[in-house]
Amino acid sequence: MNQRFDIIGRSPAILQLRELALQVAATDVTVLITGETGSGKEVLSRFIHEHSRRATGSFIPVNCGAIPSGILESELFGHEKGAFTGAVQARKGYFESADKGTIFLDEIGEMPLETQVKLLRIIETGQFQRVGSSETISTDTRIIAATNRNLTHEVAEKNFREDLYYRLRSVELHLPPLRERGSDILMLAEHFIREFQRKHGIAFEGFTQESGELMLRYPWPGNVRELRNLIESLLILERGKEITPDILEKHLIQRSRHKSLVHEPGKPEKIEMHLIYSSLIQLRQEIGEIRQMLQQTLMARQPSGPLLLPPSSAQPPAASAPPPAEVTPLEELEKRAIAEALAKFEGNKRRTAQALGINERTLYRKIREYGL
């Protein structure tokens, strides 16, 4: 079995998720996986497939958001020769190719309504028709769908069929964001280090304890995907040398600045939180640099011989150390952001969760945690 798609982590949420995934894998029930972008939804779907009776069959991932809506139906269900301009020969679709296997429909919330009708029929009857054909084809394909959208909201907005939504979520598995998984962050980092050491042939000296603690504090807006990309960048760009907090902060600041240039429609509050955190990291780095410069300046000013001043019995008052720069803890920033959002939306939990870019379950937990 391909261990590359094991579920890595020991946090309570991940252990429970793994147990549920193994239970689900033993059946053919349709599964809906929810979670933020980059949280590992495809890895979870492959884990389910590889522990099912269909493990010897095909696993076909389809990103519904990456295929233009005009050709998604043809890609999924196939087409006959001459069905449309450019259809010079008949072609099988993904559902035919995935017979006796599993099809993974990622970003299911992006699927056009007209295609959703055909998908609903496959779930209910196991039958479909190629584009341009009246012949009915049967398929024995397990469907696992995934989304980072709030499908309940999409149903209310008439962007997603309600009947399809309830058929898809026969079983719903939620992947928690990386920032809520505690020490799983370091376990995943070790896994990726081993992977990229083998891939690139680089001997890695590891992380210092302080840099490991910094990784635990970082909010990981890009989740597991961001962590994986960061580890590969660190190994290659730093040539395997030990990663100190200064090195790690430099890379995190660069990545946060890059993310701030990427337009993320509908989530301005989430972008602001990322910018706040990157600013805090940069502030800490700049404070450290200023402190080092002051120390070097003071050392340079130390006289090599006795001072040419008359002795005095009165001792000057000792210079007090400057107070440390005050930095608001991340927990306080998060609490303020949630309180302000709740006030803005007059206590509406659904709208507050959407504005903050989190799910309602997480919002309710944070409200209890902060006593809001």
Provide structural commentary:
The protein has 372 residues and is an alpha/beta fold. The chain has two domains: 174 residues, Rossmann fold; 119 residues, Orthogonal Bundle (Helicase, Ruva Protein, domain 3), CATH 1.10.8. Helices cover 51% and strands 8% of the residues. It is built from 15 helices and seven strands. It has a five-stranded parallel beta sheet with strand order 2-3-6-1-7. Strand 4 and strand 5 form a beta hairpin. Helix 5 crosses helix 7, helix 8 packs across helix 10 and helix 13 packs across helix 14. The two termini are 47 Å apart.
Task: Extract low-pLDDT stretches.
Answer: 260-269, 303-317
CATH topology of the largest domain: Rossmann fold
- Nearest-integer average pLDDT: 83
CATH class of the largest domain: Alpha Beta
CATH architecture of the largest domain, by name, is 3-Layer(aba) Sandwich
Structural class by sheet pairing and helices: alpha/beta
Q: How many structural domains can be distinguished in the coordinates?
A: 2
Q: Overall 3D geometry? A: globular
Gap between N and C termini, in Å? Answer: 47 Å
Largest sheet: 5 strands, parallel
Q: Helical segment tally?
A: 15
User: What proportion strand?
Assistant: 5-15%
Question: What is the radius of gyration?
Answer: 27 Å
Subunit arrangement of the protein: single chain
Helix content: 40-55%
Strand order of the largest sheet: 2-3-6-1-7
What's the helix-strand series?
Answer: HEHEHHEHEEEHHEHHHHHHHH
CATH superfamily of the largest domain: P-loop containing nucleotide triphosphate hydrolases
Number of strands: 7
